[in-house]
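quick one before i forget lol
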Amino acid sequence: MISIVRAGDARVARFNARPAFPEEAERAAAAVLADVRRNGDRAVMRAVARFEGFKAGSPSRLRVDVEGIGSGGIDGAVLAAVKDAHRRVARFSKASLRKKWSIKTPRGGTAGEFFSPMDRVGVYIPGGTAPLASTAVMTVTLAKTAGVREIVACTPAGKDGAVNPVLLYALKLAGATEIYRVGGIQAIGMMAFGTGTCRKVQKIAGPGNAFVTAAKRQVYGYVAIDQVAGPSEIAVLTDGSVDPRWIAADLLSQAEHGSGLEKSLCVCTSAKQAEAIRSEVLRQARTLSRRGLVNRVIDRGGILIVVAPSVAAGLGVVNDFAPEHFEIMTKNATRVMKGVTSAGAVFAGAWTPESAGDFVAGPSHVLPTGGAANMFNGLTPDDFRRRHSFVVFTRADLAETRPAIEAFAAVEGLDGHGRAASIRFE
């Protein structure tokens, strides 16, 4: 069922409520992670056999030979698409890297920041309902651009241990140095704790289902994580200036991912627009190859259309939702964009469908979901680097700040701190 409601209706608040960590996922993650931490490769193989159907037999079979990955048998158009996406993402990533900087201190010294790449990171590539080759590009490329030397990738395999060749090619092209046929909670545990086959990483990035997301949260502290990235979401704000067929197609683009927990929010400025969009969504849903998955989202109320009195009011509705993806399909879209406060990624203008961002535009499509866009950012190359602040004082700088240092030391009862400054002038 697709409901049409007015802004302020209680159903909007209920639609916005989407727990990032369902209790079922939390319990399952805790059990599998504890097993992996205690039993290493044996636990990983047990979980892979149980949840993925692949009976590896030996830990060595979990690892893919990266050097043996080639492009043979892959359609030429697909190869071209992967290379084009990689080129665009690498270009955007390089341009987005934060640069080292410094300022002069009042008495001739300097202070600033510089950055260094992490040594070893892990990325998770979902593969349950579709081999997400684009996610390989949108994660590994960023780590490579950041200068990470060891990039571990985990993705689920089929029951025979096979991994989609396009996904493998994309991982190798993007710069993965190790690839494992391991998915789900067990992949997160393997990368976070390390096993005899796979050494632990410093950070884990990448999207996943509710179980993967819960696992990432639970290993935080053993490793760093990027963000909360669960079931896909989209919000579209329209003022009637864009064809309702286009709006409907965009709403459906995120409903076909497969978990059934995806959410698509449309905010428009008239009831007439709302009816036209709802009719188009229902019509187009019947034509999609993954219509069964889409219908699960529709049946669960995962598509909602809200009628707002104005574009400004509609923008407020979307900011409250804090979507993973936000399309502004209005006149003067870039002007409206200035009012965005909570969204993982913004797509402005009629010719910017979210799917361009999913595959080729440049920014990573690994984005916060479940309302987390009001506190987390999308994945960037800087997520794979360490930031270091530095200070280089002169004698005059320390002399000038010595009274403040000694005052703080006295207030906080830390006389050793004060002496560390004063002793230099004795």
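fyi Residues 23-52 form the longest helix (30 residues).
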